[in-house]
Amino acid sequence: MREQPQRGRNRKLQSQVQFSYYPGCSVEGMNKAYDKATRVVCKALDINLTELTDWNCCGATSYMAINEQRAHLLSARNLALAEKEKKDLVVVCPACLTTLTKTHRYMGEDPKLRRAVNAALGATGMQYQGGARVRHLLEVIVNEVGEGKVKARIKKPLTNLTVAPYYGCQLTRPFGEIDDKEFPTMLDKLLSWLGAKPVNFPLKTKCCGGMLMMTNEDVALGLTRNLLESAKQNGAECIATLCPLCHINLEAYQGNVNKLFGTDFNVPILYFTQLLGLAFGFSRKSLGVDDELTSSKRLLKKTWWLYESCQKR
Amino acid sequence: MVVRELPEKIGVYVCHCGTNIARTVDCKAVAEYALRLPNVVVARDYQYTCSDPGQEMIRKDIGELGLTRVVVASCSPLMHEPTFRRAVAGAGLNPFLFQMANIREQCSWITEDKELATERAKAIVGAAVMRVTFHEPLEVKKVPVNPDVLIVGGGITGIEAALQIADSGKKVYLVEKEPSIGGYMARFDKTFPTLDCAACILTPKMVSVGQHPNIELLTYSDVTDFSGYVGNFTARIRKRPRYIDEEKCTGCGQCEQKCPLSVPSEFDCGLGKRKAIYRPFPQAVPGTPVIDREHCLYFTKGVCKVCVKFCPKGAIDFEQKEKFVEVPVGSAILATGFDVFDGARIKEYGYGRLPNVITSLEFERLTHASGPTGGNVVLKNGKTPESVAIIHCVGSRDHNYNEYCSRVCCMYSLKTAHLVREKTAGKVYEFYIDMRAFGKGYEEFYKRLLEEDVTFIRGRVAEVTDVSESTSEKGKLVVVAEDTLLGIVRRVPVDMVILSVGLEPRRDALDVAHTFSISRSKDGFFLEKHPKLAPVSTAVDGVFVAGACQGPKDIPDSVAQGAAAAANVLSLIDRKAVELEPAIAVINEASCSGCKICVELCPYHAITYDGERKLAAVNEALCKGCGVCVAACPSSAIEQQNFTNRQLVAEIEAICT
Amino acid sequence: MQVQHADRRVDSLSEVFLEDVYAIPGGEKVKECIQCGTCSASCPTSYAMDYTPREVIAALRAGMLDRVLKSNTIWLCASCYSCTVRCPSGIKLTDVMYELKRLAIEFNLVPKNVKTPMVSKLFVSIVDKYGRISETELVSKFMMKTNPLSIVKMIPRAYKLFMRGRLPLIPHRIKGTRDLRKSTEMLVSGVHAGTAAKGAQ
């Protein structure tokens, strides 16, 4: 069930829309490029991101495997901080999105959980009353900023770039609030606004293996291989991602996939904000494009517009 | 309000009901207590008051002691209120000077505590005694029953009901939305478990309906308004324009042949084509075609008129307008049928996205001899499939879509498997969760399919994909399901996938329900009065439901319900008059301020406003005694007979003191 | 690897585990499982599991916990939620898997070769320390504990990452770590829901 956007919730200050920003631990660490590109692009789209003060880890999938209530507590502290700001909370990592949304929902539905967590938060003078609204940046750009504004910023349309839009598991599952749970189209839409050609990608919401890459590498590599194979088969020159964990599995472990399966993948993996930024004419450095282990240099050199932006470095 | 000058003489009878009541309630004590209450002249306890001797006892007391009121403390009024009212009336006392006190369902059956039960029983009896003091004698009114019948829906159910009623000599108005009667059954190829050809068994009945002197067939029509009360309804029927003069048309088919424009055929689920002037299928009844105004070149562009040129009888009439007729009927049967679940809603099954994923209904059209492929089961590219998968429970038994089981899909999936084997000799896989073969000959049919070497895999399909993981899967549709009997996830490559879609209420079921003032159950199908004992009646007297509109069902059950509804209707008609329950609302004209609040609130549209006198009036036959107007009236001008404020207050005060 | 000889003592814990599964939000729905197998067929890693997700539920309800916990099934769950969104009975199977993981760790019934609890425990200790995760610390500690030699293999990648600024060596410590600790203590001392502590009594 889709929630209707609450009108007038984000005060527009001088044509800027105000959001609280929750980067998430991964995007601060190994996947800093996502944060870099996000900030650059949001500034260009007049989306004002104020990083949530002193946010803590959301717990992701690992904390929940140890203790349910403590995991909810972690999320709830962030939600309580966000609620105080009275602005929608924007996240870029779907695992953070799912964890925060789950806590918000379960606290709303389960009075026992609500009491326990709020009592714990109360020990430090905090409470969560259910007033936070967590959104993913993709949805904010497509729904709130909209086609007109995005297109107006394009300096170098990504003409003829064939992209496989990879959503991963936790953007649309389990709640299905943002887009269809099995075959979403939001990212496809955004990519076409940028002039690129999103290919038919039947595995667009299939699992990359996530944390299993650490504990059961072979299984995760198999799943990652399927994604790379399908993208290639459907004519994609690169894969667009919106989850840092999916991203790292696809780009940092492509070599391992090749070694295990005897394949020769060399598919550039780019965050959707990086693609936005490139279309907006920003330099590769500012977008962290060359931070990847699987290089996109050759691909991006092919296309004249990106070659030029390469020069901007 | 009548002032009591003489005290009443109340007789109280406390029933043991064997041990049902006596086990927990001390009936003797309750009777002794009752005797001490005001106006009570006799109080007895008895083993089985509803028995003949029990009733006789009451009658004797009325005669000998001159009782003016009677209270029986026993079971629920739903059980024996009519029994005791009749007994009381038999002794010459007005049956509404009787009150029943429920000390079984609401007392002895809800507790094991004897003391508590006895105290409670005393309170209940006391309340009944105080209440009955204020009862008034009421008359049961009778209204005559119009013997004409309205049947909405010309599928097999409606046809069955129409023939039964028409054969008994009564007049039937059969209204059907489509240009022809026949319903979904006309689209099927074969029917389970006998593998009868659907058209062969249906069309003779359709012809009978078309030719029956007692049936007035109104096709391409729908009911826009339905008002009145049992025995005396008025139906407003809209006849949509066919743009063909039915009197002149002989059904020769020239127009259809010559028409230059072809559009996708709804009858063929869009797989085949029909003309802009068309009959939905060759055996259509009536045989008069219909012009599709949205596509016809004359209506859209002002050109063509080929049909006019070739019609030997000059029956084309582009100026035809829709007509409204108002028919008085005494009863109505709704047999409006069902719709199928939209397979596109389950994205992971690939319907609409992957070629050669079709629904079971589309399959029926493929395999049908007069279908778009002449009865050949073929893929989109015209080739015969070598392997076919049939997926059960599409949209049914699923909390994401419809929670209920659609009842017929297991059986029609078996039939589908049989037809695929027959026509293609290919491999057939059936993916099921359970095999529901409950009817006569159904389990035997399942055995037959096992013998026909269909492969049954017990596992609900998770997805249908075109992404291949091995060479054997290339170019195929891969069905992914866990073979739960083995505990192994299987990927089965096939050429064609058939989705066994479930049955749903029709898209316009809500509108129909509103028109006829009936309710729907949680799943959207029409609500019957009682699921076991009154499956074709509704809460509205005189309106009956039958067939798949009441819930998913197969042809045998639909026909049975059609006949059942007909029997109900004939019983109603033969009674010649119906009794109206007198516990209805009565408006005190002196107090009525004409505010019309009651008019808006009445769920049965039983209250009308007299503009001249500026008063509201209750239609006694429509009023069902729900009490909403009584509660809502700001002037307290409405009282309900047998539930007056005085009676209710007396009851409440008795319990509270 | 299907278990032949079941440990009766572990099997007797089935009820406890089942009750705790029922206690999670939406957990009662497990009773409505019709064993249709949609979860197994939707699961991307079920091919590598000893028992399919459906079999785990069946074994749990049949009082045969031991074979479930000796298998690798629950540890191969990647939290993709495919099973949860497709289950026709509305069972939140991913959450059930989390609960089973928690209970297995709490009762110390994890097979020796399963490394996931180690990652999760390290994750928790790092988050409790800093309020955020330090991927560098997590990965390096994990490798030290499981297979120190593998660190050698990782050095080239680690170097590449470090040169791209993706391997922060100094973890960020949030200001609210004391608050979090206080809140956690309050939670832990309060009424438990979702752990097997009450069931064990």
Question: Would you write up a description of this structure?
Answer:
- The complex is a heterotrimer of chains A (313), B (657) and C (201).
- Chain A has 313 residues and is α/β, with parallel strands linked by helices.
- Chain A has two domains: 12-136, Up-down Bundle (Glutathione S-transferase Yfyf (Class Pi), Chain A, domain 2); 154-311, Rossmann fold.
- Chain A is 49% helix and 11% strand.
- Chain A is built from 15 helices and nine strands.
- Chain A has helices at residues 25-28, 32-44, 60-64, 68-85, 94-109, 111-122, 137-153, 186-193, 212-215, 217-233, 244-252, 254-261, 272-279, 297-302, 304-311, and strands at residues 12-13, 16-22, 47-51, 89-91, 134-136, 162-165, 197-198, 238-241, 269-271.
- In chain A, strands 1, 2, 3, 4 and 5 form a five-stranded mixed β-sheet that branches. A four-stranded parallel β-sheet of chain A has the order 7-6-8-9, sandwiched between helices.
- Chain B is α/β, with parallel strands linked by helices and 657 residues long.
- Chain B has five domains: 10-138, 3-Layer(aba) Sandwich (Rossmann fold); 147-240 and 324-337 and 511-577, 3-Layer(bba) Sandwich (FAD/NAD(P)-binding domain); 241-321, Alpha-Beta Plaits (2-Layer Sandwich); 340-504, FAD/NAD(P)-binding domain; 581-641, 2-Layer Sandwich (Alpha-Beta Plaits).
- In chain B, a hairpin with an 8-residue loop joins strand 13 (262-264) and strand 14 (273-275).
- In chain B, helix 6 packs across helix 7 (198-211), helix 6 (156-167) runs parallel beside helix 15 (555-574) and helix 11 (360-367) runs parallel beside helix 12 (409-424).
- The radius of gyration of chain B is 32 Å and the shape is globular.
- By secondary structure, chain C is mainly α.
- Chain C contains twelve helices and no strands.
- Chain C has helices spanning 8-11, 14-23, 38-42, 53-61, 65-70, 82-86, 93-106, 116-130, 135-146, 150-163, 177-189, 197-200.
- In chain C, helix 8 (116-130) runs antiparallel to helix 9.
- The longest helix of chain C is centred in the middle third of the chain and has 15 residues, at 116-130.
- Chain C is globular, with a radius of gyration of 19 Å.
- Chain C starts with 7 loop residues before the first helix and ends with a helix.
- Chains in contact: A-B, A-C, B-C.
- At the A-C interface, helix 1, helix 3, helix 4, helix 5 and helix 6 of A face helix 6, helix 7, helix 8, helix 9 and helix 10 of C.
